Amino acid sequence: MVLARCGDRCLVTGATVFLTAGHIKPWSVCTDEERLDPSNGLALSPIYDKAFDAGYITFDHLGRIQISSLLVRDAEALGISGNETIGAVTAEMERYLKFHREQRFRE
Q1: For 44-50, what is the mean pLDDT?
Q2: Sequence-separated (6 or more) residues with CB below 8 Å from residue 29
């Protein structure tokens, strides 16, 4: 459902291969309803998915990337410019992204 919602493309790069449909709010802290909610997911390429899961990047309410100070030194080497966006963020997605920014992002 997440891949379909994201057009079977990485929301950052537009790539159509090596995609991961991952939870925004981690499965381990979700309710059963949140686990199945397609709005609690992002389709991302591997680097972005790993960085997001580890809290090294997040996205603001407008979908713009935020890079942790812990990743700044390596961001360019990983292909993360700081200008990335995931596009329009729905109100449903923002609820999960707010959780990620406040609870998972490593500032």
Answers
A1: 98
A2: none
